[in-house]
Design brief:
Keywords: Membrane, Repeat, Transmembrane, Transmembrane helix. With 252 residues, the chain is mostly helical. It has 10 helices and no strands.
Length: 252
């Protein structure tokens, strides 16, 4: 029986080792293919930059910008993937050994998939929708700048109130709210910007306002924020998008 168990363990270990080696081989093959495709597209972009100049090449077409960012991010991802693999040595763990390349890949994936919209332009159904997405993105550029200024201003205002309130309240005695930290999502300016964006989308809890330095002022600022951003600005955005839709949609 011990010999049979040892033999079974040996077979299981051999199968796992074979599968691991196969996975590594497939990964290297996929990486080599990705590198070849990346070199092809990089050469194409480089040729365009040489012919018309880098600035004119990128400014003339939004797809050139998307491809440029995608190529740079993907190239850096492949480089970091090799670095992470060499650093990991024998025992490779996706969770522990590929943090840098995974982070870079998360940046490379959105522009890579967004570039597929370019190929959708050739189809009748998806082409009109893709053009509409592009034109709306261009058309709301100035609106986004104004909206960002407003959201940043209010978010930093909330940040100041919550930071000042954290010095006055015990976080475990702020109403009936289960408080993990006394400033909720406003522990630093960057977190405050994210919380301000979430507030614009309706993600808020008014019970948290009691943790601020001045709950009454917090309520007033909240009402002003909701009226100006949610009612005025977002309805303005709908009007702008409707106007762009009328321009992009084909004549009946």
């Amino acid at each position: 029986m011990p010999q049979a168990a040892a033999a079974a363990d040996g077979q299981l270990g051999g199968a796992e080792g074979w599968r691991s080696e196969l996975a590594v081989a497939v990964a290297f093959l996929a990486g080599a293919l990705a590198a070849l495709l990346l070199l092809f597209f990089a050469a194409h972009e480089l040729q365009g930059m040489v012919q018309s100049g880098p600035y004119e090449h990128l400014r003339g077409d939004i797809w050139n910008c998307v491809d440029f960012v995608s190529i740079i991010a993907q190239g850096l991802t492949l480089f970091l993937l090799v670095v992470d693999y060499r650093r990991a040595g024998g025992g490779v763990s996706v969770h522990g050994d590929f943090q840098a390349s995974s982070t870079c890949a998360s940046i490379a994936l959105p522009p890579a998939w967004f570039s597929l919209l370019y190929f959708m332009l050739g189809f009748e159904g998806s082409g009109m929708l893709a053009r509409m997405v592009i034109e709306i993105t261009r058309g709301v550029r100035d609106f986004v700048i104004i909206l960002a200024v407003v959201v940043i201003g209010f978010a930093l205002s909330f940040y100041v109130l919550f930071q000042a309130g954290s010095m006055q309240h015990d976080p475990m005695t702020v109403g009936d709210v289960d408080v993990e930290d006394e400033v909720f999502g406003y522990r630093n300016p960057l977190a405050a910007l994210v919380s301000g964006f979430a507030l614009m989308l309706g993600d808020f809890d008014r019970d948290e306002f009691s943790a601020s330095a001045n709950e009454s002022l917090m309520n007033v600022l909240f009402v002003v924020f909701q009226v100006f951003v949610t009612i005025i600005m977002l309805n303005l955005l709908i009007a702008i998008m409707g106007d762009i839709f009328d321009k992009v949609s084909p004549e009946p």
